[in-house]
């Protein structure tokens, strides 16, 4: 009976993480495809304004609308706000699949940061993963030196910020309800978006463009983004709560495959052979960060 229950939870977790990365990658592709339609700060405000009431209702239903560490939750939310800002700012500069590959070096930075905080040298397996991830990023963001832009380092910066936020979540926000964490993050998106709006006015700027009138088409885009971010955030929370983290993390990398697919279908972006090689190397590096099967103690 216990084996059946565990199998059910694992199946549910895998389904949840696949749905999550499907939704998040589609949302990111939609933001890139509509980058000339709405400025990012306006998109932040409108998307989160639709998401907050739903998260509030879900959190109320769970009966735990309370922050155990409000200061750390605020810092976590700010790190993630700047992280997404960095990642989205990179989308006009490079194909979605390459930005996603560079961003998914986040687990490698988590391994390195955890080792620094623990004051313990990483295991050889982790060191190999970090080295492979570095090689993969070089292949992705510098397929040729003539086309390199400093802005292509933005998704790597986003990965570092993500690692800091996740380590902070593990150390300081462990007892907080994931729905409440998501709610706090979306409130920060609204406030941060409004703050960016104070500096808006640059014509044709993806981040600081002027406020655009809300046609039915644009409202439909924002509503779709709100639904996708809701599915993505809640799905990831369910997956990592109910399934083995090592198993879930493998399927989490499905974001890379979905990004390549959306880039080809909707944006006409076809990565070069070298870039695809870099994506594969980063994926392999991510697998190396997982604990070996049959050695639970190695997860530490």
Task: Characterise the protein shown here.
The chain has one domain. Helices cover 73% and strands 0% of the residues. The protein has twelve helices and no strands. The longest helix is centred in the first third of the chain and has 32 residues, at 2-33. The radius of gyration is 19 Å and the shape is globular. The two termini are 29 Å apart. Mean pLDDT is 80; it is low at 294-300.
- In the predicted model, the low-confidence regions spanning at least 5 consecutive residues are 294-300
| Radius of gyration using CA atoms only | 19 Å
Order of helices and strands: HHHHHHHHHHHH
Number of strands: 0
Which word captures the global form?
A: globular
How many domains? The number is: 1
- What is the arithmetic mean of pLDDT? 80
Structural class: mainly alpha
Count every helix, treating DSSP H or I runs of 4 or more residues as helices.
Answer: 12
Helix content: over 70%
Main sheet: strands, sense, barrel: none
CA(first)-CA(last) distance: 29 Å
Q: Proportion of β residues?
A: under 5%
